[in-house]
Design a protein that fits this description.
Among the domains are: 1-18 and 32-45 and 72-172, Serine Threonine Protein Phosphatase 5, Tetratricopeptide repeat (Alpha Horseshoe); 287-378, Serine Threonine Protein Phosphatase 5, Tetratricopeptide repeat (Alpha Horseshoe), CATH 1.25.40. It is built from 15 helices and no strands. It has helices at residues 2-20, 27-53, 61-109, 113-129, 133-149, 153-169, 177-192, 196-218, 227-253, 257-275, 280-295, 299-316, 321-334, 338-355, 358-387. The protein is globular and about 120 Å long. Mean pLDDT is 81; it is low at 1-58. This is Tetratricopeptide repeat protein 19, mitochondrial. Belongs to the TTC19 family.
Length: 388
């Protein structure tokens, strides 16, 4: 979240700069000073030659003072020219860096991740050259996200750690939400790498840090809280919900279903309170909790919950409605309601094709194969039952 805020801040500055100026700053001023420097340098050489040929001729005091002033002006002009050139070069690099970041963002939006990675690598070089720590942090975090999506987990880990080290060195507190968000991503990486101890430690650090912050914020009288503090409280709670959701998925993958259920219930309560009953994330959490209940054999509880999520998602036009339908079909399959399961699987399949969600298509097709398998088993069992 803090990282996206940095993105908006950085890019808004970029847009503002490109709208307000047609190109690099100081160009006209630098050109003028360089031209003056050339003229004065030529004058300086002429004076030196002239003085050498008239070495024995006494000079008037006023003329000597005038020459000193002229030389001082020439020296200042040359010095100013160098300083302006440095500022001009720094501005050029900053403008180029911002343009590269905008190109990277557009490439990410289009799903062109290799191109985005290339733009970000170029941008971070310029960020280092201009000693722009904010740009370094932002670019490293974006590079880490791109690497993670591409499955480059080792690279993503190193980049997240690099971004965090710059933030901590710059005085960012260890419990800052941006630090915790990156720590959560590291914990998720360790979970995918089957580094159980590191993953558990990372999830614990994130949840405990956020819970401590929220307890501290509770101590402030409600009437004394500013709008900014209230926004921070909400952001912190939603980040805690995200941490619990991530840890629940990890615990479900390791079949710690009771612990996963507890995390899902807490995450759902947070999301419901902060974002409302029909928010897309609330409905996804309801469906995920239903799946955990189903895995524990609590099919009736699961069916009630997932049906509620599907009905609400239909009413609000949830973007992942087809995913929730597939979950409903799966739970119906486990309860033995094969006809209803097929009906909802077919509806989910059609919507998944329309959405271009290949992962959902594959999952639904696996569900339909399971239905066929169940039906074959039931047919084989019928003659045996009739014979008895």
């Amino acid at each position: 979240m803090a990282a996206s805020c940095q993105l908006r801040t950085l890019l808004s500055r970029a847009v503002s700069r490109f709208r307000c100026s047609g190109g690099p700053r100081y160009t006209s001023t630098a050109s003028l000073i360089v031209a003056e420097a050339v003229d004065h340098s030529a004058c300086w050489v002429t004076v030196e030659d002239h003085k050498a040929t008239r070495r024995n001729i006494p000079e008037e005091p006023g003329r000597r003072d005038g020459r000193r002033l002229l030389w001082a002006a020439v020296a200042f002009s040359l010095f100013s020219s160098k300083e302006e050139d440095k500022r001009d070069e720094a501005q050029r690099k900053e403008d180029e860096m911002i343009l590269l970041l905008k190109k990277a963002k557009l490439s990410i939006h289009r799903g062109q991740l290799p191109a985005a990675s290339s733009f970000l690598h170029q941008a971070v070089v310029l960020a280092h050259q201009t000693h722009n720590n904010q740009a370094i942090i932002y670019t490293y975090s974006q590079m880490a996200n791109v690497a993670y999506v591409q499955g480059q987990l080792d690279g993503a880990e190193k980049l997240f750690k690099a971004a965090m080290s710059y933030m901590l060195a710059g005085g960012t507190p260890q419990d800052d939400n941006a630090i915790i968000e990156m720590s959560l991503k590291l914990a998720t990486i360790y979970a995918e790498q089957n580094k159980a101890e590191l993953a558990e430690h990372g999830f614990m650090f994130c949840t405990e840090s956020l819970e401590t912050k929220l307890e501290t914020q509770k101590g402030l009288p409600e009437e004394d809280q500013t709008e900014e503090q209230e926004e921070l409280r909400k952001e912190t709670r939603l980040l805690l919900g995200l941490c619990l959701d991530s840890r629940a998925r990890y615990r479900a993958s390791t079949l710690h279903l009771s612990q996963a259920e507890l995390d899902y219930r807490t995450a759902l309560a947070i999301c419901h309170q902060e974002q409302g009953e029909t928010h897309p994330q609330t409905l996804v959490l309801m469906s995920d909790l239903a799946t955990i209940l189903d895995l524990q054999g609590r099919h009736d509880e699961a069916l009630v919950l997932v049906q509620q999520a599907v009905d609400l998602s239909r009413s609000v036009g949830h973007p992942d409605y087809h995913v929730l339908l597939g979950n409903l079909a799966g739970i119906l399959l486990h309860t033995g309601q094969l006809e209803n399961a097929v009906r909802f699987y077919n509806e989910a399949l059609e919507l998944a094709w329309q959405a271009g969600d290949q992962e959902a298509v594959n999952r639904v097709q696996e569900g339909l194969k399971e239905v066929q398998k169940r039906r074959s088993q039931e047919k084989k069992a019928e003659p045996e039952g009739a014979a008895e």
